[in-house]
Amino acid sequence: MTGFSESSTVQLALIERLVSLGWTHIPGKDLDRRIDGVFIENDLSAALIRLNPLVAAQPVRVDEILPRLRAAALAAAYDGLVLANERMTTWLRGHQTMKFIGADDYDPVRVIDLAHPTRNQLVVSDEVTFGSPGQNRRFDLVLWVNGIPLVVGETKTPVKASVSWLNAARDIHGTYEVEASPFFATNLLSFASEGREFHYGAVGQLPEEWLLWGSTTDPWDLSGAERVLRSVDLLLNPARLLSILRDFVLFDRSLTGGQSRLSKLIPRYPQVEGVEAIHKRVLDPLRRQGLIWQSQGTGKTLLMAFAALRLLQDPAIGGPTVLIVLDRIDLVEQTVRQFQTAGLPRLRVAGTKEDLRRILAEDARGIIVTTIFRFEGAGFLNDRANIIVLIDEAHRTQEGRLGDDLRTAVPNAQFFGLTGTAVSDAERNTFKLFGDPDDPGWVLNRYTIERSIADGSSVPIHVETRLVDFHIDKEALDEAFAAMADEEGLTDEEREVLADRAASAKTFVRNPERIREVCADLVEHYLTKVAPLGLKAQVVAYDRQLCVAYNDEISRLLAERGVEDQNEAAVVMTTGTTKDEPAEWRKRFQLTREQEAAVKARFRDPGDPLRFLIVTAKLLTGFDASIEGVMYLDKPLRLHTLFQAICRTNRRYTNRITGQEKHYGLIADYVGLGSQIATALRDADPERGGRRPVDVEGLAEEFLTAMDATLERFAGIDRSDIGFEALMAAQDRIRGEEEGEAFARDFLRVEGLWEFLDPSPVTAAHRTEHRWLAQVYESVQPTGTSDALLWQRLGAKTLELVHGHITEVRVTSTGLDEVIVDAETIEAIRQLGLPDGTVTLPEADEPITVAEAFDTIEARIRRRLESSGNHPVYVAISERLERLRSRQITQAAASVEILKELLDVAKHVTAAERADDAGQIDAVSILPDPNVGALTQILREYAPPDVPVIIENIVADIDTIVRQVRFTGWNQTQEGDRTVRKEVRLILKKYGLPTTGELFDRAYAYIRENY
Q1: Across the strands, what pairs with 143?
Q2: Chain segment 831-854, per-residue pLDDT in tens
Q3: Range name among 349-353, 801-805, 914-918 with the lowest pLDDT average
Q4: What pLDDT does residue 44 have?
Q5: What is the mean pLDDT of residues 734-752?
Q6: What is the pTM assigned to this prediction?
Q7: If we measure between CA atoms, which residue out of 527, 547, 517 comes closest to residue 620?
Q8: Which neighbouring-strand residues pair with 830?
Q9: Which of 185, 319, 323, 417 has a CA between 20 and 30 Å from the CA of residue 25?
């Protein structure tokens, strides 16, 4: 007996599964082919005759086709594999034409029946050899379609912990694709598995970038052999593979380091699900819209590209127009670049309102890319029903007048919103604007952030607090301010104006000493922690003035260190927006669209010295740069804006020069995100917020009544007279405090109704009267000029006083563990936000606060205490929560620490409740002392008391396994992290110990630190 082997376990299991999916197993040694040939030529010849009437009429024409196919495959050896694969994809899709001898015209040649998968010859072979004698390679598994090798699989043994799927993927990428490239010219995708994980990738794709396949209807934490076999069922069934070949393969030509690089793009499973959901909805005669909600950084632009390709190729839709609507010009440029380089057909850009009107008036078919702003006031443009509108970043500008203008322009179109951050607040509700009420939660397709992180589609985000301390000599400052005010003879009101403006947040963030300390800290942090990983940094400043200050100080510090030639900083911000901005800003920082694109390209280029990208609003959202490893955040952000900002760092990235993989994205927080992280990560509620249905007819009648009442006080004044005398006459009618307040109330009522109704026929008929009333209202409002003049005269002097009394500024790390935005944390955050039957959550549109989360958890604990008779587990959790509540959130450090511990408590409450419901509450360990150190102590402390264990054996097992599976730098890679976590859980399970919770967390933390 030889024991478990690769072929007897993983390989055999995959073959059996594939056979159950419709593949016929023929061992590689029994295939009817030469080992130096790419194809099974008898099967290919039979398919050519079966699928092509002209060939069936004269089978000898097979001999005209086969040499061209052989040549196209062999070209991979000298033209490059990806280029050969692109050419061969044209053949596989049936788009290649030939003029046969004796024929009059060119005709397409079909080699695969893409519409009917089961009508093809489907074969799975093991141990397939390719090459010449003495110089050949053997592939573990090959999937053949009509004699064409469409998929290659490499397996590894499941019983050797030091070998994983990654070794198999590296064999394919680094050896087989190089030494046997002609065999991969027809390759759709390859896969690798050791029975524990299953990953797939395209030709030329780095193994570290290979992804998992799955389904959004499965548990997000599905893993092990169950996930492997599920992936085989979902991905390698003939219908899915041929669907990917037909609709989901694109080729991208991108510039990197000034050189064009060709790469193959194949989809992730949420992209396929999203596209197919859109396609199915387009064909639904009863429903006209849908919401695609997929996490930031998971490829929504590519999803739109695949969707456009799918829709354009379906004859049932009848030559549609796919309208891609974005909300920023830079997103148009980015999307068009990706679409063009990927080779999407019939692509046009509507760069102006006139372009859009002309293209739609021409009834153009194909893809049109434009911005939402091109529809402003456009009116009706085209009423065709097969216009499909795909709207990216659907949570931002699609509600209100612009969204109404869009729907007026193409009234019969179908609308699909794509977003990573669905919003439901007082003004907006992404769900009800784009969703269908019959869809679960108003969402057509959902790919959550926790699923994305678990899949490796995006990386976790760590938040590291950088505490900014300073001292204000308040007494001395008050004395100096009073002396200045006396010297200037200021009134009490003027003193208050200066004090209020000087006390704003801007005053403190712009303090010169604070700027120096923050910049020194972030430069040191970057050079020591981030630069060695080959990653780059985005700096988010409070405002444009801080952008300039940080750019100058960072550049000075880099020059001082003598590293400015390897590390540069650049500012991307809007200039020319205010009259009082320094003239030098335009000279130094004004960028054309082309120049801004060049800066972004430099930042994305790992070989370019541009390391710091300094922004305040631009590039804070909608900017994809996977090389960004850290965001230095020095600007307060909230809700979806905060979520989108921190997700700039969550893109997967592997440095092609060094092979260094990004393990996580880092946020260095200088302002105190605290509980805002939890709030930003919570799901929006589709039933809250947004513009609600209104009685338009009733409001129109109310508007007319309010308008007449407001105009009545100006009876006799000629409203067509735009002269000064007429304005003075109107102001005379509202002189006096009582009359002025009454007019203000009436006008604001008119204004509120106007905002609800406009645009509409009733507002269009009264636009002149509304404008006249608005101008009268504005003419009697206080101008604030005196305050502005006072600040202009004494503002600089006041700020100098304040800055002169801020001392001892220093930036330090808090010493706290980082807040880690991973799948488990997000699940805990969402548990905090679940409405609880005994807690009255706020009815307002604001998300649940930390205080409300405290109340929610406390109520849950209270009920469990009562029902369990004060079980020690709930008593311990209750005591910990009370200690946590007693601490005050006074600064960034405490805020983040409170959040971390609150999340930890939430996890324990949830775990305890589940155990309680299952009748296993006595097996739950009491919350531990956080100061336990060594592994043995950890296991002794946290093992349930009723589970007999031999501590020394457990420690020995963990030590043995971890030393086998870990490698140098294992805790800096996703693969190493996952492997060690999995092995530790298996050991704990072996001894009947809990595989999640405090025992695992403490043990793993010790292993990560010491192995």
Answers
A1: 124, 151
A2: 554 433 333 333 333 444 556 666
A3: 801-805
A4: 96
A5: 78
A6: 0.68
A7: 547
A8: none
A9: 185
Here the tokens at position 415 are: 């609308």
Per-residue pLDDT tens for 886-942? Answer: 553 334 444 555 556 666 677 677 777 777 777 777 766 654 433 333 455 556 566
Percent of the chain beyond pLDDT 70? Answer: 71
In angstroms, the CA 777 to CA 420 distance is: 41
Q: How many C-beta atoms lie closer than 10 Å to residue 765's C-beta? A: 10
Higher pLDDT, 867 or 12: 12
Q: Residue 980: pLDDT band by 50, 70, 90 thresholds?
A: confident
Q: Looking at residue 345, what DSSP letter applies?
A: S
Long-range contacts of 71-74 (CB under 8 A, 24+ apart): 72/185, 73/38, 73/39, 73/182, 73/183, 73/185, 73/186, 74/38, 74/182, 74/185
How far is Cα 39 from Cα 147, in angstroms, rounded to an integer? Answer: 5
The candidate with the shortest Cα–Cα distance to 856, out of 847, 844, 845, is 847
Token readout for 942 is 């946290």
- Position of tokens 């004395």? 479
- DSSP assignment of 595-638 equals HHHHHHHHHH-TTSSEEEEEESSTTSSS---TTEEEEEE-S---
The alpha-carbon radius of gyration of the chain (Å, integer) is 33
> For helices 974-990 and 998-1010, what crossing angle results, to 10°?
130
Q: What angle do CA 600, 606, 608 make, to 5 degrees?
A: 65
**Cβ atoms of 164 and 975 closer than 8 Å:** yes
Instruction: Provide the angle, in degrees to the nearest 10, between the axes of the packed helices 238-247 and 224-235.
Output: 60
Nearest to 144 by CA among 267, 244, 43, 72: 43
Query: If you search the block for the tokens 């009454």, which residue do you land on?
Result: 742
Which residue type, as a one-letter code, is found at position 378?
A: A
Host H or E run for residue 880: helix 872-886
999 touches 943 (CB < 8 A): yes
> What is the separation, in whole angstroms, between the first and last Cα of the chain?
35
User: Could you report the per-residue pLDDT of 433-481, keeping only the tens digit for each?
Assistant: 778 888 888 888 888 877 887 787 777 777 777 766 555 555 665 666 6
Residue indicated by tokens 């030393």: 963
Bond from prior residue into 759 cis (ω within 30 degrees of 0): yes
Q: Do residues 913 and 485 touch, judged by C-beta distance below 8 A?
A: no
